[in-house]
Amino acid sequence: MVILNRARIVKTLDKVNQIGLTESGINRLAYTVEDKEAKYFIREQCELIGLQAKEDAAGNLIVRRPGLNDSLPAVAVGSHLDTVYGGGKYDGTIGVLAGLEIFRMLEEGEIKTLHPIELIVFACEESSRFNFSTLGSKAIIGAIDKDYVKQLKDKNNYTVPEVFEKQSLNFDHIEHAVRKESELKVFLELHIEQGSQLVTYKKTIGIVTGIAAPLRVALTIVGKRAHSGTTSMENRQDAFLAAAEIALKVEDAAIEEAKFGTVATVGVVDVLSSAMNVIPGKANLKIDIRSTDVSSRNRVLEKIKAELKRVEKSRKVKVGIEWMTEEEPVHMDQKVIKEISSICEKNNIPYMFMASGAGHDAMYMAKRWPAALIFVPSVNGISHHPDEFTEIDDIVNGMKVLKELVLSYAILADENVRREA
């Protein structure tokens, strides 16, 4: 019987995580040398076992294992290798390694499938570099606003097209990354939970039913700079204190919607031209609101907008919405969800149904193909942090479920092989 190789999974995980490793976590930002090196490592490992790989116009790495009928739509698995600043070792990475290990297992066992199988290593899943996430999966379904993305810059003032050029890519050709609906049968992603529900409820597998999409707002608050010693308290137009009141309202509004699983965060606060003896005259806020319930998310936004008007009047400042982006929550395919639960029950693996508060590439793939997202536990719910950790037993169990799911859709060529695998 062919099984997943636990020792090899650990060794490969360690190898990938040497790329971009620093004392403060892993820095493997999208479209950097480190990101490219990690994708090259995966490509090399796949080519060593005889598989073909290519990079598409968005920088997604696509590895293909042919099926006996290679004209059939492929069963696709995948995730991402790029990280946030100071990221952890498991977020996204285990989903990529799951595809690699499934390929290795099938090749070692000389197991044939009717449908081809693909591993997709998505580019720029994290928003850390450009404040723009899931670029690779958006490109695959043709959901890129080229004019908008062209003007995005990283903290070093490089635009997306400039960064593409450094990677030998041409942003003007990004539409060449679009895949036809007929090319894929299903998309499956394995990922760490990035929360603590699985640990709390002592479950090994989380079957995601839906993914909450973010609504993001950038605010500019303009008050009046003045001397901190000579301006009386009643005559101040303090932009930072106005920002603080708005930030507290963001929290209050989300708490009022907590029963819908809605959350809201002020992730960025910039006080411009600040000094200890100067009353702040300008501040910027970036707000992230997430929910699988659009109505609940919109209620939070309306409460924030009402607070902006109140703060303008009480603090004598001007508050403007610099930009706002809004994405729609996505629900995973019910048939695939049922198949995952059946696999868990057959293997006596404890599972639960849950929503994802974090965005993933699966949410965009689900707009065009049946899709599923499988979670494994994050110890203490930590993610996007050097202390991020998932037990190897949980990783192996997640890969086992994914392997059976892949084979159920790729269709084993021989019933005897089906029973062994």
Automatic annotation (TrEMBL):
Question: What cofactor(s) does the depicted protein rely on?
Answer: Zn(2+)
Residue span, Peptidase M20 dimerisation domain: 217-313
Question: Under the GO molecular function aspect, what terms does this record hold?
Answer: hydrolase activity, acting on carbon-nitrogen (but not peptide) bonds, in linear amidines; metal ion binding
Binding-site residues, Zn(2+) 2: D91, E126, H384
User: Which PANTHER family does the entry mention?
Assistant: ALLANTOATE AMIDOHYDROLASE, ALLANTOATE DEIMINASE-RELATED
Q: Which family does it belong to?
A: Belongs to the peptidase M20 family.
Name listed for the protein in its UniProt record: Peptidase M20 dimerisation domain-containing protein
